[in-house]
Design goal:
The chain has 15 helices and 19 strands. The protein is α/β, with parallel strands linked by helices. The strands form five sheets. Strands 2-1-3-6-7 form a five-stranded parallel β-sheet, with helices on both faces. A five-stranded antiparallel β-sheet has the order 9-8-12-11-10. Strands 14-16-17-19-18 form a five-stranded mixed β-sheet.
Amino acid sequence: MSDEKIIRVLIVDDDEDDFLLTADTLKSISDRKFEIEWASSYQKGLDRIRQCEHDVYIIDYYLGMYTGLHLIREALKAKCEEPMILLTGINNQEVDEAAAELGAFDYLLKGMLNSESLGRSIRYSLAQASMMKAIRENESKFRTIFEKSRDMIFIADAAGRLLSVSQSAEVLTGYSADELLEMRTSDLYADPEEGAAIENDLLQNGEVSGRKVEIQTKNRERRICSIYATMQPDRYGRQYCQGVLHDLTAQIREERATVMSEKMEATGRLMRMLAHEVRNPLTNIGLALEGFIGELPSDHDLQDYLDIIKRNAQRIDTLITQLLNSSKPTELHLEPLSLKEILEETLSETGDRLALKKIEVIKQFSAENDRIMLDREKIKIAFTNIIVNASEAMQEGSGKLEISTERALHKIVLSIRDNGNGISPEHLNKIFEPYFSSKPGGMGLGLASTLNIIQSHGGSIHVESQEGAGTTFFMTFNAS
């Protein structure tokens, strides 16, 4: 007994005789040692309960103008986690059910109270309270994981209706939690057929593990994710889905940017080598041609042919210069500039072209600080190339050009979206390559130059496009 934990009990009863009887019953319990205190009114009981100093609360049903149910309700509002046992002199099933529904651990009749029944009730209540605390602690841990995870964790019913989502779902999808809970998982997939295949796998195999899928955000951006989901039965035997969407977009974009950078670096080395090898004989051809022209009279029959050779030699030299300029690192004169101001200047300079095709320009610029270390003229060239390409891809009179900026931590993301013809998948991976162009007569150096300028600024660029639905260029810069 000396090592037995003393159980601190508060008896809330406005009748002193009833308190003394209950206290005597407690003292007669042989296998427990109690420290007993008395609260003689509803308010005194509530004040003591709020102090959280007891292990068990024994509460009388009648407490003046209040009842024990009122006290239990207020105790729970005060975050009381210790067990509460309700005592009453009347056997009333409705009171019993109400007490259980509120959270009372047991319900005892005064007329049948003895050391055995009260001892059993206290043992049961303490055990239940301990188990409930453990459950709440585990729930809190898992709730923290659920809410703080960077992955979108979701629960959906068998029909795909979202029942619960983590906070990160709002960041990933752009939808609010309330909006998501009105949606199905299939509403998030960019490709309905791919979404249907995933749901079919879930229903047939009970799980999907690590499958890549594209989702479409509220602002129509596509993000590449891996999905992990399983079907589970609830306690009623109904199937529900619990799953995780892990955003791979940044990782894949970084990998693509690294590949593109290495590819451009290798292309640059090759171009410089070829330029050197081509320019040497080209210079000799030019020198020989000048000498040959000097020896012939101006009205000689060969003069026209020599002029053709001379013009094309000069054109080859110009093309080599352009190619070298598109692949070598750009020299920059950086200064802290507002991205919004630079975009406004670029739109002003391309305004005639946009107005000619009656293209609607929609601007959504972040209100936060958008200053970036930029070379004013170089970055305007990069933006102009994208805007001009967008204007050429859109139909006259129905074109929409959407330009938006958004700050995320230490990054600023610029998106330029058009509703033009879009780019085919086979062309999408080539658009930054020098001399690749899908336009008749196009040189294919504009976007290669744009990539070079953006990367020289320490930024990154990627493109999302769908044939017939338009193209979006996303550029990410380090904020000042």
